[in-house]
Task: inverse folding
């Protein structure tokens, strides 16, 4: 059941990223260094979600264990920088509401990938034929 839900999540996120990318790059604002790093984390994370959803071993078990911890730390850092960049939005009349909606959106978008990346090493932990493919 969880694998089917994560498959839906995977394809939803792929579509979301495609649409977001079109609109984000269309406004002509240049990317900052943190944006590039976030894209790297996002693409690696998505490849891990795909590997779990479709039972495709990719990279090593230890990589995914370490990457999950780094991803959570990175996401907390990246989201916190988003809160500190635009203080006008969060300090207005609906400041708390905006923060709560923003936090719920991020939880909805990020937690399923954490679950898949947590389950991925467990999926292939006892498999002796599990080899690093990349």
Result:
């Amino acid at each position: 059941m969880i694998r089917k839900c994560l498959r839906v999540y995977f394809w939803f996120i792929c579509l979301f990223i495609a649409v977001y990318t079109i609109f984000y790059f269309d406004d002509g604002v240049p990317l900052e260094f943190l944006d590039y790093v976030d894209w790297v984390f996002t693409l690696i994370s998505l490849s891990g979600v795909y590997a779990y959803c479709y039972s495709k071993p990719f990279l090593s078990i230890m990589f995914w264990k370490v990457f999950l911890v780094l991803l959570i730390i990175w996401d907390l850092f990246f989201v916190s920088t988003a809160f500190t960049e635009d203080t006008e939005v969060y300090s207005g009349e609906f400041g708390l509401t905006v923060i709560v909606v923003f936090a719920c959106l991020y939880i909805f978008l990020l937690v399923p990938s954490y679950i898949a990346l947590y389950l991925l090493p467990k999926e292939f932990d006892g498999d002796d034929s599990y080899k690093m493919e990349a």
Q: What stands out?
A: The chain has a mean pLDDT of 80. Residues 95-123 form the longest helix (29 residues). The chain has five helices and no strands. The chain has one domain: 2-123.
